[in-house]
Amino acid sequence: MEPKKQKMTTEQHAQCENAFLAWKREHPKQPLAYSDLFAFLDEKFNSTPTTPKRTWPCDNTLKFTRAFCAKHNLNFTRIEKRLNETGGYCDCEVLLNSMAGYEIGAEPLV
Length: 110
What we know:
The protein is an all-alpha fold. Helices cover 55% and strands 0% of the residues.
């Protein structure tokens, strides 16, 4: 038999929220880096909700890169230019060329 779960009191909830806000102040959000984009693309290319680890063909566009930029309010044109400089003219080339052949993973996406 599963133990009965206790509901958090208002005071406990306030303590948790205050602790979280204090932690957030001490740990400011780091800017997104190209490595975050690479991880996003890798996830898109290597799995789907119904078929884990299924790879689908590239459509020769930067569709997923554009979606990532839109989601995070990033300048797609600037990022596209940098990816093109490193051989990333479509989403799969970003993974194959930009990620693998260049040391841009730590560069911020700003």
